[in-house]
Amino acid sequence: MVCLVVAAACGDDGTGTVDAGDSGADGRTDSSMVFGAPVAPTPPALPNLLPCAPGWREVPHGDGFMVCEPWPAAGRGECAAGAVHYPGTAGCVPLGPECPADGVPIGLPGGRTVLYVRPGAEAGTGAAGSPFGTIAEATAVAVAGTVIALAVGDYEEEVTLGAGIALVGACVTGTTITEPSARLDRGVINPEGADVEVRNLTIGSSPRPGLWILGEGVSVTATDLAIVGTRVVGISVERGAHLDADRISVRDVEDSPPFPLGRALNVETGATATVRHLDARRNVEFGVAVLAGGELHLEDSIVAETRAPGPDVNGGPGLGVFTGGHLTAQRVVLEDSQQGGVMGFDEGSVIDLSDVMVRRVEPWGERGAGRAFDVERGASLTCRRCLLTEAREIGVGVGGATVVLEDVLIEHVGFDARGMLGRGMVVQTRGVAIVDRLAILDVSEFGIVVGESRFTANDVVIRRLVPQRSDGWFGRALGFQAAANVEIRRIEASDLYEVGMLVAGSGTDVFMEDVLIKDVRSRPDGFLGEGIIVEDHASTVLSRVHIENVRETAVAAIRGATLTINDLVIRGVSPQGCQDTACAAFPGGHGLGAYDSQITVDRFLIEAADLCGIHVADDGQLFLEEGVVRGAAIGACVQSDTQDLADLSRSVDYLDNGTNLEATMLPVPEPLAIAE
Known about the structure:
The two termini are 37 Å apart. The radius of gyration is 32 Å and the shape is elongated. It is an all-beta fold and 676 residues long. The protein has a 23-stranded parallel β-sheet that branches. It has an 18-stranded parallel β-sheet, with no helix packed on it. The model is unreliable at 1-34 (pLDDT under 50). It contains 1 helix and 49 strands.
């Protein structure tokens, strides 16, 4: 250890000299010396969720920006049968026309042959005055261009529709088709050609799928259609078929063991679909699934109350995209899902979201996962103007996948079933995240965790973290580890616990500009409260950094780490909260600490550190140039044989410190635990 003697204890006048050995450099307290003041960080921009989609309300958020609410002030309406409250509408919207007094459909397309059907009619010809008694009688004679008009009533039969045939009910609430025989390879209604139309009716409870659209060249237009209580799927579009749909309600689709499926809408195997105004509620496994090369464009829709098939069976997300499916969704609300709001897995799966809200994701399984977004195994997701609120365990999870977020708010992520996690965003296992204007508010344990992945961001705000409930640990804004590669420009992190940012592990490389970290508290047991920790051979380069109101150590490098900072302000470092109890022997209160590591700082101000303005020990090295250390009990605490005092004194002023330089042996911080 370098044994140093204090040349002069700085009294009230703050004058004194730091002994810099034989270098000839001195750290004067001459306040007339002019240094280049540290450049202040540029604050990050907040997410811009405007303009709101038509009919969505602008609502002020308490953190200084506007959010878009899809429902009126009274909330989402509970609608009578045959009506739906879609996002952006003032209230319940009826599906199709009211039931006509005589029960016969009105508003039928002109210039086409019409065959009339009324349940129970006998010996009919299909004329208006002599209707068929079953739909099968009409389909047996219908040709392309024929309209089959269904009167009010209940029809119990499987329906097959050839090319160019339109099936039109009198009204959704009064015209119901069911099929009592159980099959999973046929639906209640089965189009088998191009240009088929289905509208103004209900497919009722049946032990089979509802609308089964299958095969190359099959295309269907469906409007004002309700599907209730079918099995496995409400609508399935497969094998190159196409669906164009508007004003659709699919509810209470049940699974059919051994198949744990009960999806509202399924698009797969090269099929395509465009769906506007879908209401999918209380379905099983996935609300909407796109897979195996299927493509879906979804607009102005609500997917709610999707649940898993059982406590030990995967399922519950609102939207799922797998095995190369493609989903584009605009102005869509996902509420009260289970396990996930949006889930994307597998190479080639693509999800593109705009103006999407995910609200309330319920936990599933022993661990209690309930992620707003879960993207893994080569899938990709892009989200613009998205609000993700009240998820559980993780807000956005990325594992070996790519996620692009633009103007996104993640808030109120709760603990998992163990009382742990509650993270805003996790990127791991060679994942990639590209972020512009992200706010993470009121989450727990970590705001962002990156491991073995690449994270690039502009404009990030993280506020109000709490420790995990199980043990009172964490509450950190940022955790980068396991060879993470991170680049962030403009970030603010405040109202935290334990540490603002931890960078750990060989190969972890972090570059950040315009960084503000403030108000870091000790965790409930009184320990820690640090600003930035770089440890275990990690490398970090920072520019324009402001750290304020933290505990123990504002900036520390531990055990082989390398840290370079240009333009640093540290203001207000208190001892740990346990200073009078468990950590009385090592309370801390240091501005800058190098421990078996190397820190280089150019242009800095360290002000009001409770104990040491700078602390170097365990063969650590500090290289300082152009700065001020003011208002510490000890300006420089040096306990390292490798520290050259000249490297602490190049254009560095030590002002108003109790003592400018001291070699007192002080405890050295231990490396922190990383995220699991």
